[in-house]
Specification:
There is one protein chain. With 392 residues, the protein is α/β, with parallel strands linked by helices. The chain folds into two domains: 22-42 and 284-389, Alpha-Beta Complex (Aspartate Aminotransferase, domain 1), CATH 3.90.1150.10; 48-281, Aspartate Aminotransferase, domain 2, CATH 3.40.640. The protein has helices at 8-21, 48-61, 77-90, 101-112, 127-136, 148-157, 182-191, 214-217, 246-255, 257-260, 267-279, 284-303, 323-335, 365-389; strands spanning 34-35, 94-98, 118-122, 139-143, 165-170, 195-199, 226-230, 240-244, 315-321, 338-339, 342-343, 353-358. The strands form three sheets. The chain has a seven-stranded mixed sheet with strand order 2-8-7-6-5-3-4, sandwiched between helices. α8 links the parallel β6 and β7. The model has no long low-confidence stretch (mean pLDDT 95). Bound molecules: pyridoxal-5'-phosphate.
């Protein structure tokens, strides 16, 4: 009997239709209006000093392609210097650059843990951390977001397993805008003989002395097994450094497939990152302004009865509930001149579709005031539109 096989193209079309039906269909749009989805937290992406340094680096390097993997032709003094300087910035013995934060997390976690090990992962960890853990083949134990007592229970439940144990967490959570209890996590790691891995993607440049991040601020940079700092957000570039001991770096150079089997980034990018690193520690005024407008926005939204969850940073989630409501709020804000996108499941848990308001130091106080008014209008317009559609 011939096997009935559904054509692949038919399945693709059906899945896309289903996404449209569930209001989960995504499109690539060009942002316009006041940027509220940008991770350029310090406004460095268009800083004339950084632009000038990058142009100078391209002119002087005489070679705009790296020509190969770092293990073949692609290594350069520029990358070696960038890694040395980044390790000094992050307070670790050494650092290894990957071409994206996603590649760093997947490449690192897939080899730091193995099938005999247990990885304890915060429930709100980023997709790149989740995918790295999955690829490692380790047993994954998800603990409720930031819940130390549930994490401790999980350690007890898995006390008989003999493999290594790893706690994996973001330091500043990308969707909630709240912080991991890093000191407590390290204490638990010590108590149960585990290692700690931290992703500083949204904290680097913004928190800690000179923007060195929350791990540095907590004084535990030398104790975590690895700390990931991405360069595509406050550092206005691309890629990420895994900051760790010399031995962990050597291990990743020998084992991490996203490092080994990938062309090195061009050398001028190393110069751009070094230039950003030279500017970031002194950007105290930008950091202070960013924290002040973020706090004004959180307070203003709470006073208007919105839920901003546990946010305590420049990332302010405006929880709408259903995907339809989040889409309608985003549409209304766009009409009022704000570039914002709805974040829907599966990126966030079901029923917590939201707008992720991500502030940058280039926003002024008057824009925050206007934004508050636009949020109130968005809620009102959506309630009206949804109740007009309801049968009662
Ligand atoms: C917490 C976190 N880790 C890692 C990444 C991935 O970094 P990249 O964008 O450099 O691939 C992101 C990106 O959005 C992130 O939010």
């Amino acid at each position: 009997m011939p096997v009935e096989r559904r054509p692949l193209r038919e399945r693709i079309a059906a899945e896309l239709d289903e996404l449209r039906r569930q209001q989960l269909f995504r499109t690539l749009d060009l942002p316009s209006g006041v940027a509220l989805s940008s991770n350029d937290y310090l406004g460095l992406a268009s800083d004339p000093r950084l632009v000038a340094e990058t142009i100078r680096a391209i002119r002087e390097s005489g070679k705009v392609g790296s020509t190969g993997s770092r293990l073949l032709a692609g290594n350069s003094k520029d990358w070696e210097r960038a890694e040395e300087e980044f390790a000094a910035f992050a307070g670790t013995e050494s650092a290894l650059y990957f071409s994206s934060g996603y590649a760093a997390n997947v490449g690192m976690l897939s080899v730091l843990a193995g099938p005999a090990d247990v990885v304890f992962s915060d429930s709100l960890n980023h997709a790149s951390l989740i995918d790295g853990i999955r690829l490692s083949g380790a047993r994954k134990v998800i603990y409720p977001h930031g819940d130390l007592s549930r994490l401790e229970e999980a350690f007890s439940a898995h006390r008989r397993e003999t493999g290594a144990r790893l706690i994996v967490t973001e330091s500043l959570f990308s969707m909630e805008g709240d912080f991991a209890p890093l000191g407590d996590l390290l204490a638990l790691a010590r108590k149960y003989g585990a290692e700690l891995v931290v992703d500083e993607a949204h904290a680097v440049g913004v928190f800690g002395p000179g923007g060195r991040g929350l791990v540095f601020e907590a004084g535990i940079a030398g104790e975590a097994l690895a700390v990931v700092h991405t360069c595509g957000k406050a550092l206005a570039s691309a890629g990420a450094f895994v900051c760790a001991s010399r031995e962990v770096k050597q291990y990743l150079v020998n084992r991490a497939r996203t490092f080994i089997f990938s062309t090195a980034a061009p050398p001028y990018l190393a110069q751009q990152i070094r230039a950003a690193l030279a500017l970031v520690p002194a950007m105290e005024a930008e950091r202070a302004h960013l924290h002040a407008i973020a706090s004004a926005l959180r307070e203003g939204l709470r006073a208007e009865g919105f839920s901003v969850g546990t946010s305590a940073s420049q990332i302010v989630p405006l929880v709408a509930g259903t995907s339809a409501a989040a889409m309608a709020w985003a549409e209304s804000l766009r009409e009022d001149g704000f570039a914002v996108r709805a974040i829907r499941p599966p990126t966030v848990p079901e029923g917590t579709a939201r707008l992720r308001l991500s502030l940058t130091a280039t926003l002024g106080r008057e824009e925050i005031e206007r934004l508050l008014g636009a949020c109130v209008r968005a809620r009102g317009r959506t309630e009206k539109a949804l109740s007009a559609r309801s049968p009662i």
